[in-house]
Amino acid sequence: MSRTSFFNRRKLKTNKPEQQNQTKTTIELGKNLAENLKNIKTILGEPSDLIVRETTLGGTDKKCAIVYISGLVDQDLVNNNILKVIQSNMNEIDPNQIDVVFQEKIAITDIKKDNKFDESIDSLLSGSTIFFLDETDTVLILGTAGGEKRSIEEPQSEALIRGPREGFVESVQTNVALIRRDIKNSNLRFNYHDVGNKSKRTIVVSYIDGIVNPTIVQEVNRRVKSIDLDLVAESGFVEQWIEDSFLSPFPQMINTERPDRVASSLLQGKVGILVDGTPFALIAPTTYSETLKSLEDYYERWIVGSLIRILRYIGTFLALLLPAIYIALVSYHQGMIPTQLAFSIAAAREGVPFPSFVEAMLMIITMEILQEAGARLPKNLGQTVGIVGGLVIGDSAVSAGIVSPIMVIVVALTAISSFTNPSYSVGIGFRMLRLFFMVAAAIFGLYGIILAYIMLNIHVANLKSFGIPYSAPFAPAFVKDWKDSVIRAPITMLEKRPTYLKPEERQEKSKNEEKS
Amino acid sequence: MLSSKRWLLIFLITPIFLAGCWGKIEIENRGFVIGTAIDLEGKQGNEKYNLLMTNQLINPAAISKQSSGGGGGGNQKGFINIQDKSDSLFAASRKMRHLTNLIPYYQHLKVILVSEEVIKEPGLFSDVMDVFVRNHELRRGVKVFVTEGEANKILDFVPQIEKTPAMFIEKLTTNSKNAGILEPKRVDRLQNIFIYERSYFIPRVKLVNNEIVYDDAVIVSGENNQMIGTLNSEETKGLLYILGGTKGGSIETKFDDNLVNVETQSAKVKTKLTNKDKENFTFSLNINFEGTIEEHFGTKDLLKEKSITEIEKDLEKDIKQLVERTIKKVQREYKADVIGLGDVIREKHYDLWKNIVYNWDRGENYFSKSTVEVNVKANISSTGAANRIKQKGKRGE
Questions:
Q1: Which of A19-33, A105-119, A185-199, A340-354 has the weakest average pLDDT?
Q2: Where is the Spore germination GerAC-like C-terminal domain positioned along the sequence (chain B) (predicted)?
Q3: Rounded to an integer, what distance in angstroms lies between the CA atom of residue A460 and that of residue A469?
């Protein structure tokens, strides 16, 4: 009660009691093949893409059936490795030990026996083929998942000039493989979770055993298990469910499309979360300074990397504060503007009918609208909108005398600066905070900006991501990590893993092994 | 519990009353005062002066327009001068609010021009400067000049390059930092001077043939802040050599009956007190001059050791003459220490200074009784990029 906070932390529920699942059927597997097949059709509502192939075992008169959903399976696999085998001559087989025999016959590696009806249906819906045999209450679940997949492409949202050109795809198996390809280490671990009430989604928590702090893994696993949603459609759902503070404007996990980014984070002692059906993986925990890092900082030489990183910090401050500072200086503290500039601003603003705050608001909102319109439109149309919006509206607003030319410069600079942030979701957070700062500046001037800045800092200092302070390595000072924060020290000096993550094994490379 | 929450609420609300949007004045509603002139209009009886304050407000629209653009505005002046009379400057500036729709704003004030008439009245100058030191809106770096004749006339001068006369004077003195001219006095420096009651000089600007001339200074007594005289431009040059501020300036001399012009590269000054006798303080003033030849009308070979030595000798003589003339004037005529000899005693011999501080350039006036030995050491470091550009009279000389 006594502790009052602007951003109350949500307490995550601890492991919930076994969730009741409405999809579970009460129907049991029977011994009658025809009945079983009828039951399946009834449960699924007799869809047209449900393929039921009834046949007899090759050479015998024993009835059997394979059931799958077309589009989810690899058709060649079903035809060549299952159907052909079944229909081929099987005279020598003792029909009574059918399960054992089929494990020997069917040429598919991922195969398991099951006798629960609901589980078979779940597998069927995720692309497995089910083999029914008459007079048996056991089925075979054959892993034939396949179907159309997007090939590996260059990530759209995180293009780098220098760096690998491959990005995650929607299939979690492919994504796991991509990470495995980057980290060839026996300690690489993947914890699978099937999450979702109405529809199961595979969520994979990956980390490197022996590097990562085990408490972080435990916490991530616990939170992932607690997800209570009908459908986890995108990693954004996971992120929002397991984040520490849902009121914060800062994302507490990095999302990325790049396998190399996940791989390098895992090697630092972080945890990667892959969600089936989306190319966006999550990296947790993260800190504020992490969000300003791009992989290219490391791929380029350290001087270039450091300079670009400093530039990015400057860009962040500009994106956050520039319109607010403009409002404060123009409305309250004209004495702080250099004399000549003050005169030209005064001249430019002569005839502008609005106070600077309204002027800035108009332009910022216009820009946000343009940005949003451009993002949703097809690519080539988006460009047109950008040109029409940016150039035509900007120019004619000035010549119509609605805004001053300096305001256009301020807004344009702010917009460009906000794109220097490598993470799109952090950028969105800053767009909101910018408005907050502008209001503060309009009411109190620079004093208001400082008040707002203090508030923001209190919040950031309070924020945690999976137990790691969001302001690390600055606020709890981990001095050793500073060489990879605002500047990026030469790669030869970055031989240790960041201390703020409290990794189990601090030394990177082989030095540790040499010593021991 | 509840009270702590209430306190928090109060703490959150109070800042709103400390400052807020009702105190807001948009930049286009500000009247930027960049120059102020103060003139004496006359006395009203005893000790009551009638001051004329002229404020130069800029006209932003005219100032920021590109001169070549020419569209619309035409030959609009970049400034407006408004003036009002009162017995105090603050009252005058308040009265001036009726004269313009803009709210006068002094944070960008650059220069204060005070007419000689004001400084000639005992004590009036420091009274007049009070508002400029005290007012919260003003910067400490505002430059103060004395004007010959009416100060407000200078604010009417239309300069060629700058848009306003105040900016012109401001730039004239900042941009020519390395041109061997006097450094202007700033308001903060003046406050220091007033408090320690030291004699000082203030650079003077004057209008000659519709040109602004900035090459001399007035001497003000520290006792009552009254002007006691002027230094002409030659004497000001000497003053510059004593203060070590000649860098970038030039000095002319004759060599073999031809003109030689030397640019000062550095002129370091070291002053020592050599005799501590009150009645006859002796200072040795050592000027270490270094310069380069920039112009030479003759054809003599300047690379020869002999010619250089000769020029150096001439320079030493000329500089010494300049300096001694200035010293003589301030010592014998004005009896006001504006050349910083008192500082030498204060900095190096503080115990002695404590005894004589009230009799230094007043009372007993030990300053005027002291002697100054001037030693000049000139050194020509370079003869420029070429030795000669003309053929000598005779070959093979």
A1: A19-33
A2: 224-384
A3: 8
Helix A405-418, helix A339-349: angle, nearest 10: 110
Asked whether the beta carbons of B205 and B216 are under 8 A apart, the reply is no
* CA distance, residue A443 to nearest chain B CA (Å): 5
Asked if A343 and B65 come within 8 Å (Cβ–Cβ), the reply is no
Q: Could you tell me if B118 and B124 are in contact, meaning their C-beta atoms sit under 8 angstroms apart? A: yes
Partners of B205 in the β-ladder: B147
Q: What is the CATH number of the domain that holds B354?
A: 3.30.300.210
Of the partner residues B4, B8, B27, the one whose CB lies closest to the CB of residue A342: B27
- The partner residue sitting opposite A2, judged by closest CB among B1, B105, B137, is B1
Q: Does residue A148 form part of some domain?
A: no
Cα separation, A215 vs A30, whole angstroms: 46
Q: Which residue is listed with tokens 């800062």?
A: A250
Same structural domain, B237 and B126 = no
State whether A378 and A269 are in the same domain. no
pLDDT digits (tens, 9 = 90+) for B317-341: 999 999 999 999 999 898 889 988 8
- Report if residue B145 sits inside a domain: yes
- Res. B286: pLDDT tops 90: yes
Q: How confident is the model at residue A2 (pLDDT cuts 50, 70, 90)?
A: very low
Total count of domains within chain A: 3
pLDDT tens readout for residues A297-344:
899 899 999 999 999 999 999 999 999 999 999 999 998 999 888 988
CB atoms within 10 A of CB A320: 24
Surface-to-core class of residue B296, CB atoms within 10 Å of its CB (0-12 exposed, 13-18 middle, 19+ buried): buried
Q: Checking DSSP bridges between strand B258-275 and strand B250-255, what pairing results, if any?
A: antiparallel
Q: Are residues B106 and B153 in the same domain?
A: yes
User: Which of B229, B287, B288, B296 shows the shortest CA–CA distance to B262?
Assistant: B296
The whole-angstrom separation of Cα A336 and Cα A342 is 9
Q: Which residues of B touch A (CB under 8 A)?
A: 1, 4-5, 8, 15-16, 18-21, 23-28, 30, 32, 34, 58, 60-61, 63-65, 105, 107-108, 110, 137, 139
- Give A4's pLDDT tier (boundaries 50, 70, 90): very low
Q: What's the rounded Cα separation, in Å, for the pair A23 and A206?
A: 29
**B102 and B114 housed in the same domain:** yes
The per-residue pLDDT for range A413-456, each reduced to its tens digit, is 998 898 888 888 888 888 899 999 999 999 888 989 999 999 99
Per-residue model confidence as pLDDT tens digits over B17-40:
665 667 788 888 888 999 999 999
The answer on A334 and A211 residing in a single domain is no
- Which residues in A lie closer than 8 A to residue B34 (C-beta atoms)? 339
Distance CA A120, CA A139 (A): 8
Strand B30-43 relative to strand B103-105, pairing:
parallel
Q: Which of B28, B103, B140 to mutate to test the interface with A (most CBs of A within 10 A)?
A: B28
A379 or A243, greater pLDDT = A243
Distances A163 to A220, A274, A462 between C-alpha atoms, Å: 29, 21, 35
Q: Are residues A248 and A352 in the same domain?
A: no
Minimal Cα–Cα distance from B205 to chain A, Å?
A: 23
Q: Where are the beta strands (DSSP E) in B249-361?
A: 250-255, 258-275, 282-296
pLDDT (tens digit per residue) in B299-310: 777 788 888 898
Structure token digits, residue A141: 């679940």
On whether residue B104 sits in a domain, the answer given is yes
Total domains, chain B? 2
Q: Say if CB B256 and CB B344 are below 8 A apart.
A: no
CA distance B126 to B202: 13
Mean pLDDT of A89-102: 62
Q: Are residues B248 and B157 in the same domain?
A: no
Q: What range does the domain containing B265 cover?
A: 233-387
Interface test with B, best of A339, A344, A345, A446 (most B CBs within 10 A): A339
